[in-house]
Amino acid sequence: MRVLVTGGSGFLGGHVVRLLLHDSTTTVAIASRHPRFPVDVSDDYRISLYSLDLTLEDQLEAVFNDFKPHAVIHTASPSYLDTGRALLKINVNGTKALLEVAKACEETKAFVFTSSNQAVVPTQEPISEGNARLWDETNAPNAYALSKAMAERIVTAANSEQLYTSIIRLPGIYGEYDTNFIPQLMSSMRRKEHKMQVGNDTKLFEFLYVKKAAEAHILAMKALLNPNTRDQAGGEAFFISDGKPQRFFEFCRRFYAAAGSPVMPEETTRIPLPIMQVMASTAEWLYWVFTLGMVKPSLRRIGIDYLNTGCCWSLDKARRTLGYEPVDDQEEVIKGTMEWAMKSL
Prior knowledge:
This protein has a 7-stranded parallel sheet, with helices on both faces. The protein has a two-stranded parallel ribbon with strand order 7-10. The chain is 42% helix and 16% strand. The chain has a domain of 234 residues: NAD(P)-binding Rossmann-like Domain (Rossmann fold). The chain has 12 helices and 13 strands. Strand 4, helix 3 and strand 5 form a beta-alpha-beta unit. The chain is α/β, with parallel strands linked by helices. It starts with a strand and ends with a helix.
């Protein structure tokens, strides 16, 4: 089987590629702006690298004509901190272009799109896919949320007997080779800032071990390729998580403890959320004034606002349709993640 993975050199995409290669009959094409082999993956003869701009139809057609994938796993996305223009270009226009070329390729029958908890209006009650609400142009809190919600609608509408499509909705992911969340935790510990907390930490969030995120994408791909399950999986979105909703900073402190730097509740310094929101907005304004928007501050309002959202999901549909099961022992994978981080970061 031939599988095209956009963003296959990144954190999630790299784990998708590694897991795909466990099947000796699978070959993988990694497509991104700057493709490279994922960390700890040797120069495997079963991997092809393609430099690709998702919005350029001629480049897309060249990749599909050469590789002829049976399935596409579309993980590529700009950072949530990127500009609205970049997010619209890749997440919306790029996804639409990729779908059109995939549908025109006779060999391509399955398309799995990586979405986000931020595409959905947040809730503190466990919700199913059936009663989740996507953001739209009238109420989206930021460009990233809107771009993912718009892309979801495009992917769902593209589902057909020519090309079966599914959406995997992910919360914050963590694990080995992380380039975002875990490095931030390590940096906080080294700067002695890991005892700080923004807000009251009352909102519940879902989290997801990256290897289970990769597995969910492959389960969806297989369901779309299987004549017995493709009608149930096609055109559907699936919530995926560890199935253990918890408070954000409480979750972070589990990583600190695994690294040998436990933080007791009475040691925590709480900074009110409104103060951090004002500080972040002020920093962004000052950077915009003095650098004409060319440089961005490390403290961003969108990141602070995220702490006041949360998400709580039911995994019943993913279990029933895809056969997905969350990680058995979250504490064990947290420990393994921090063992990797202490050696590598």
